[in-house]
UniProtKB/TrEMBL annotation:
Signal sequence residues: 1-22
Species of provenance: Chryseolinea serpens
Renumbered ranges of TPR repeats: 166-199
Domain of life: Bacteria
Phylogenetic lineage: Bacteria, Pseudomonadati, Bacteroidota, Cytophagia, Cytophagales
Protein name: Uncharacterized protein
InterPro entries on file: TPR-like_helical_dom_sf, TPR_rpt
Keywords assigned: Signal, TPR repeat
SMART domains: TPR
One Pfam family from the record: TPR_8
Length: 213
């Protein structure tokens, strides 16, 4: 069996790197509106298959939502300007706020939006099929599968770039889910998020949590 460390493809809005930040009442309201609007968009524009989980129409819906809420941006940035002082321009501050809202919305999207949740499940199942596509060639024992994962872990230990290593950690988490090692999967999703947080790992971790609860 050959397990390949694949690059995480964009999953709807979950290819975004985020920064963890607090959110005020106004931002929470905007986040709730985002969840509702984006979920509706996903329902109306489903991706045709697992490799196209981010379509142009969905990206347009994402941009349309934030374009429609420019006044809300200005209000939040003015009210909480201290949180965004590391960014030099207004455009950079708006982009940071967008990433934060999307990141904070992932748990709600996974729990409340069946279309979004289905897309993540479809994507994860696609990755499963890629990892284990050679299983039809021979019968694999659980020991074989775990040993293969250990070999992948040894391979990725040489990766230096934080974003690529975080990506590999997320993929190892998916592998552990496949062999029903949920706690190990959770740990590797958390390692990915701690090292270089993306909403891809966040969505996979949130989905795992709902399946464990």
């Amino acid at each position: 069996m050959v397990l390949k460390v694949l690059t995480l493809a964009p999953v709807l809005v979950v290819g975004i790197c985020f920064q963890v930040g607090a959110q005020g009442k106004d931002q929470r309201k905007l986040q709730d509106e985002f969840v509702e609007a984006y979920c509706k968009c996903v329902e109306e524009h489903p991706a045709p298959h697992a490799l196209q989980l981010m379509s142009d129409s969905q990206e347009q819906c994402l941009r349309a939502f934030f374009t429609q809420h420019q006044d809300d941006y200005a209000h939040i940035l003015q009210k909480d300007h201290g949180r965004f002082d590391n960014y030099k321009t207004d455009a950079e501050k708006r982009a940071a706020l967008e990433r934060e809202i999307v990141r904070n919305a992932i748990d709600d999207l996974v729990e409340e939006c069946s279309a979004y949740r289905k897309s993540i499940v479809t994507y994860k199942n696609y990755l499963f099929s890629q990892f284990m596509r050679e299983q039809t060639e021979k019968s694999l024992t659980r020991k074989d599968e775990l040993e293969s994962i250990e070999r992948v872990k040894q391979t990725v230990s040489s990766i230096k770039e934080p974003n690529k290593l975080a990506n590999a950690y997320a993929m190892i988490g998916v592998m552990y889910e496949y062999v029903d090692e949920k706690e190990q999967a959770r740990k590797y999703y958390e390692k990915s998020i701690d090292l270089y947080p993306t909403t891809a790992a966040k969505a996979l971790a949130a989905l795992l949590k709902t399946e464990r609860d």
